Amino acid sequence: MELFQHPHFAFILLSILQPEHIILIVIVLLLMFGGKKIPELMKGLGKGMKEFKDAQNGEHNSTPTNTNTNPTSATDDKPRV
Hints:
With about 80 residues, this protein is mainly α. The chain has four helices and no strands.
């Protein structure tokens, strides 16, 4: 059985990571993205996770994207005679 297929993979991964590792990861992220960009990234990650959970639960937003009632008038460039 591979490590990734192990039922307790998350627990094993967290037990391997020491506090020093987590601090090093945070420092590298700060150096890569800067202090102002990280909250934006986390906000986007949170929205993505929420949308994923909503999609799993079947709570998707079913609003139509095209609100134009007459689609031929927007694409018809020829003058009408």
